[in-house]
Amino acid sequence: MSTFKIYKPSELPDIYKYQILAFQRIIWTEGFVGKNQNRNWITHSKDHPIHFIAVNGRKVIAHVEVVWRLLHHCNKTYKTYGLTGVLTFHDFRRQGFGRKLVEKATKYILRSDAELALFNCTDENVTFYRKGGWKPLENAPITQIGERNNPINTESTNLMIKFLSKKARRNRQDFLNFPIYFDDSTW
After folding, report:
1. CATH T-level assignment (fold) for domain 3-182
2. d(Cα 92, Cα 164) in Å, to the nearest integer?
């Protein structure tokens, strides 16, 4: 029997934490190299992660995190939430667990103090996130990370976004006309 649970990082049981880390290590190998080769954290604490997981007893079925940070864009600051760490173990795919977690995480964001919600995804995942209520920002400029005077363009081409506050809705064109910049990483 599967159940859905929500945890702060300090409350996440180790049995679940290490299953999530093991899967991330396989899927997102670039996050586990160099100084992060032996990392024991799922997401940086500075991004305020909240874990949404589907479990069957002691076995993790699927995982999604909600994270947030302040985003400075076009001389304005937005409290910005996003999804990250979205994964479903292979033997549970196409059974609705990931979609249900994305829906639960999205509802959490909508009830929060977020002004804006966004994350990047690959082409093959756009349909999945659309089913969870997200829409890509069509023709959005490429997201950038690194030093502002010498940024690196991300490889993801799809910015999934929700304009939640009046300020964000009023300034929607800023997100269509100017690249979004993250200092160190996107979600």
Report:
1. Aminopeptidase (3.40.630)
2. 32
Nearest to 63 by CA among 108, 37, 100: 100
Q: What is the pLDDT of residue 158?
A: 80
pTM over 0.85: yes
CA atoms within 13 A on the CB side of 136: 18
**Residue for token digits 């940086």?**
44
**What tens digit of pLDDT does each residue of 111-134 get?**
999 999 998 888 888 998 988 889
> What is the residue-wise DSSP string for the chain?
--EEEEE-GGGS-HHHHHHHHHHHHHH-GGGGSGGGTT---SS-GGG--EEEEEEETTEEEEEEEEEEEEEEETTEEEEEEEEEEEEE-GGGTTSSHHHHHHHHHHHHHHHTT-SEEEEEE-GGGHHHHHHTT-EE-TTPPPPEEEETTEEEE-S--EEEEEE-SHHHHHTHHHHHHS--EESS---
End-to-end CA distance of the chain: give it in Å, rounded.
31
Maximum Cα interatomic distance, the chain, rounded to a whole number of Å: 52
What φ, ψ does residue 179 adopt, rounded to 5°? -60, 145
